[in-house]
Amino acid sequence: MQRDGKIFYGWWIVVGGFILNFLGIGIGINAVGVFFKPVVDSLGFSRGDFSLYFTIAALSMTFAAPLVGKLLEKYDVRLVMGVGTTILAVSFAMYSRCTTLAEFYLLSVLVGIGHAGSHIIPVSTMISNWFKEKRGIALGIVFTATGIGGIVFNPLANWLIIGYGWQNTYLILGILIGVVCIPTAVLLMRRSPDELGLHPDGLLQMEEDGFEPAAGLTLLEFSRTATFWLLATMVFFINIVNMGIQQHLIPYLTDVGYSSTFAANIMALYLGSTVFGKLILGRFNDKCGPTKSLVLFTLVLVGGIVLLYGAKLRTLVICFALVYGFGNAIQTIMPPLMTVASAGLSHFALIYGIMTIFQTLGAGLGVPLSGYLYDWTGAYDLSFAVYVVLVLAALLAGTMAMKKAAFKTS
Q: Where are the domains of the chain?
């Protein structure tokens, strides 16, 4: 962590990325499930119809992602992220004024654009540029923020909703995103170490015959490989599962008889477990590589989903939160690591911007899929069975992607 007696600036990038993920994802994605029942009960929407507002945000992020990736290659990351965090904060706060589905849907377009420019794409790009040998653990640290954010903001949002209503809660959390994230993005972040005359990992100089920071495939080259499409398939399936379970977890637990407070605490425990999962997964990847990491954590994830069938037993609910949360670390950690491992860094921002299309499409599909399957069957059991199959399919696609990768960074 030291360079000439000073803390390597890459670790300040980690701090900034942590803050942006803590609020941007911790509130804007991981805590929105708390709003489902209060909004539906208040305004008379169906779960499936209201779930579409998240889908629209995901689709908006999908279309914005390639543009954000291109802008990150062309313009100062602080400008791109400053605009993105401002859009996210204002549009999320404006949910407080919505009374119709159309209003939620329209604002979700802006929320998706804000998400694209605020956290996953720019933060993953910066961490991948600033670190090589410690990339896995750096990404692990940065993305633990999403779980910690969920730990904090699920019970906090639930408490605010009970005390002040869902409208005021949207407003308060939107203001919080703006007050903290905009200064962080504008004042702290830098795209790559060369902007400050530094090298990845804080090395005083690069190895003569080692890693080349600019090495990698172009988007066109990578899109013509089987690895690209297999990796995209894995990302798509994993995100269907992630959002399909996460955003309906609180409604599911309250359906089987638990209080909203207990359900919010289980959500917080699950997201807390991802904190440990991400740190361990990042470290494990640095030591053993992406393929072994993917296999191990995917099997843990399947075990967690199966535990949902026993949710009427409080002990099994707690076990679900611990096991599923630990395994679900793959959802945020593996895609950027596998993208770097198979495509390199020279066009990572643009390539990962395209890859996030499949992330957001999956996330956007998962939420209404669970909602409509619930509306159709009156339960979530069929959804859970579908998600086990999708996780196993993602494992197959991911392992094949790494096996067929034509470009290697090491």
A: 2-194+212-404
